[in-house]
From TrEMBL:
<dbReference type="Pfam" id="PF00561">
    <property type="entry name" value="Abhydrolase_1"/>
</dbReference>
<feature type="domain" description="AB hydrolase-1">
    <location>
        <begin position="51"/>
        <end position="376"/>
    </location>
</feature>
<protein>
    <submittedName>
        <fullName>Alpha/beta fold hydrolase</fullName>
    </submittedName>
</protein>
<dbReference type="GO" id="GO:0016787">
    <property type="term" value="F:hydrolase activity"/>
</dbReference>
<dbReference type="InterPro" id="IPR000073">
    <property type="entry name" value="AB_hydrolase_1"/>
</dbReference>
<keyword id="KW-0378">Hydrolase</keyword>
<dbReference type="InterPro" id="IPR000639">
    <property type="entry name" value="Epox_hydrolase-like"/>
</dbReference>
<dbReference type="InterPro" id="IPR029058">
    <property type="entry name" value="AB_hydrolase_fold"/>
</dbReference>
Length: 396
């Protein structure tokens, strides 16, 4: 033990794949969690804090290549396993547990509590990737004093859900249930072949077991999943979609709009890379993929999947309406991969982010030769963008 509230997991974390200068550590009592994190630049105090929030099915480990680059630039760079993931404990690993602890606002509290536990009043850099993006967005929305800038990766933030407006004069409009999602689900199911959204599938009771114990084995499933969403897979040629209709969404790869009745392991199995392609995957070697296999083999996916159920929960959506009409007013940046469909998978979200949800967003940055796993595929390019943005924020 170094001092109360922290300890270090054995240096065997990562099976010898952690870059030099990156350590694994546990922080106790963070918003009810014991948080596992990876960090670099911890040797001296007084460094500005860079907080990195991962997405699905990633871990703190996904930032391993970026952490030393930020430490070299003078930061104390910290990447936690988020609630529901990896070695962070204090959450209930069960489909039938209440969803409220996994709400976006409680995960925002997790981030706020971690900053405080680490002895900081504010971050100098906040980055959220994929499911980490909405968490980072609400951090900047709710506590701009603690999170004075934000970088969103892969998942654009369209803004908080709106409250019904001017219903005193039009009472009928306030009682209309929002059936758009049900209509879209029905329209996707009516296509030939019938389809379903990956978000709908990942919200089902079966998804955890499907992915935890797939017929091809967990390692092979994860290899195909990481590959098919990367720039290595030639099928990723993303472009904006015109509207949120079944026909438009059906243009997305099957890992986004799945064939109805197929599991995710069945969906990605045909795209498993060849031995030569695996060998060429310098950003995710077999020993590195082994870390993911070991961690998810231990925990399963349910904790990580709760976030998908949170998005469609009416009570937790209502909670977000506290911020209805609020914009992200701190300097912000969006970074995507040129080969990542996630930038466009929610039609209109990118435009809403630029025009309505934020007031100080810079250019949209798309990184060459990067798919969804930007921080693993192109960490050097990503670090250049992050450091240039941080310098610009500081200058302002």
């Amino acid at each position: 033990m170094s001092h109360p509230g922290t300890d270090f997991t054995p240096s065997t974390y990562g099976g010898g794949t952690l870059p030099k200068g990156v350590r694994s550590r546990m922080i106790h009592g963070v918003n009810g969690l014991d948080v596992h994190l990876l960090e670099a630049g911890y040797e001296s105090s007084g460094r500005p804090l860079a907080l990195l929030l991962h997405g699905f099915p990633d871990l703190a480990y996904g930032w391993r290549h970026l952490l030393p680059l930020l430490a070299d630039a003078g930061y104390h760079a910290v990447a936690p396993d988020q609630r529901g993931f990896g070695r962070t404990t204090g959450w209930v690993n069960d489909y039938d547990t209440p969803l409220a602890p996994f709400s976006i606002l409680n995960m925002t509290r997790d981030a706020l509590s971690l900053v405080s536990a680490l002895g900081y009043r504010r971050t100098a850099m906040l980055v959220g990737h994929d499911l980490g993006s909405p968490v980072a967005s609400y951090c900047a929305l709710a506590r701009p004093d603690v999170f004075p800038s934000v970088v969103l990766m892969s998942a654009p933030f369209p803004g908080p859900p709106a409250l019904p407006f001017n219903t005193a004069e039009n009472p009928a409009s306030s009682v209309q249930p929002n059936t758009e999602n049900q209509q879209l689900t029905a329209a996707l199911a009516a296509l030939n072949p019938p389809r379903t959204s990956y978000m709908q599938y990942l919200s089902t009771r079966e998804a955890n077991q499907d992915m935890w114990h797939p017929p091809q084995g967990l390692h092979a499933f994860l290899r195909a999943f990481f590959y098919v969403k990367s720039a290595d897979w030639p099928g990723n040629q993303p472009r904006p979609l015109q509207a949120r209709t079944a026909l438009e969404l059906a243009q997305l790869p099957t890992y986004y709009v799945m064939e109805l009745g197929q599991t995710m392991p069945q969906t990605v199995a045909p795209f498993h890379p060849s031995d030569a392609e695996v060998l060429a995957s310098h950003w995710l070697t077999e020993p590195e993929l082994g870390v993911y296999t070991e961690e998810y083999g231990r925990t399963g996916f349910q904790g990580a999947l709760q976030a998908y159920r949170v998005f469609s929960d009416p009570v937790l959506t209502a909670e977000l309406r506290l911020f209805s009409g609020r914009t992200i007013d701190v300097p912000s940046l969006f970074i995507g991969g040129k080969s990542d469909w996630a930038t466009y998978s929610a039609p209109g979200a990118l435009e809403l982010m630029k025009t309505k949800a934020t007031t100080r967003m810079g250019e949209i940055e798309l990184i060459d030769s990067a798919g969804h796993w930007i921080q693993q595929e192109q960490p050097v390019q990503l670090s250049k963008l992050l450091l240039a943005f941080a310098k610009e924020v500081e200058a302002r």
